[in-house]
Amino acid sequence: MVGYAAPSLDTVFHALAHPARRAILEQLARAERNLSELAAPLRMSFTAASKHVRVLERARLVRRRVVGRDHLCSVETDPLTEAGQWLADYRRVWEANFQRLDALLEEMQGRPTRPEPEHP
Fold first, then answer.
1. Is the pLDDT of residue 47 over 70?
2. How far apart are CA 80 and CA 85, in angstroms?
3. How many domains would you assign to the chain?
4. How far apart are CA 22 and CA 27, in angstroms?
5. Backbone angles phi, psi at 103, to 5 degrees
6. Rounded-to-integer distance, Cα 104 and Cα 94, Å
């Protein structure tokens, strides 16, 4: 059922709102990377990349482990799955609303309505 987004979901969407953080996640989807590797294609400093990674860590989208002087980052998929499910729930609600609107418009125009599909 669609309801108010939990604080953790709010944090995920906040983290995803910045293009640099989405780019970092794209890099990490391919392989684990250190902060310098994450910063290089974005043309940002190590410090700036670290700040973005911290936002992603707070949203549980990234896990960082320290090996010697390297900060290795990897992506965590569970929060993305939760966000995707939340969006899918809303999509179902809006699709049902649009189907009802289509049926009403067809009825108002004097056309026969299509039967609404049954939802499990």
1. yes
2. 9
3. 1
4. 9
5. -65, -40
6. 15
Selected residue with higher pLDDT from 63 and 8: 63
3-class DSSP assignment, residue 43 = coil
pLDDT tens-digit profile of 11-41? 999 999 999 999 999 999 999 999 999 999 9
Q: Write the Ramachandran bin of 43: left for phi over 0, alpha for psi from -120 to 50, otherwise beta.
A: left
Give the tens place of pLDDT for each residue, 84-109.
Answer: 999 998 888 888 878 888 888 888 88
Place of tokens 């499910």: 85
Residue with tokens 């944090």: 11
Q: Give domain status of residue 85, yes or no.
A: yes
| Domain extent for 47 | 1-112
Tell me which H or E stretch contains 118.
Answer: none
CA distances from 108 to 25, 104, 105 (A): 48, 6, 5
What is the per-residue pLDDT for 1?
A: 46
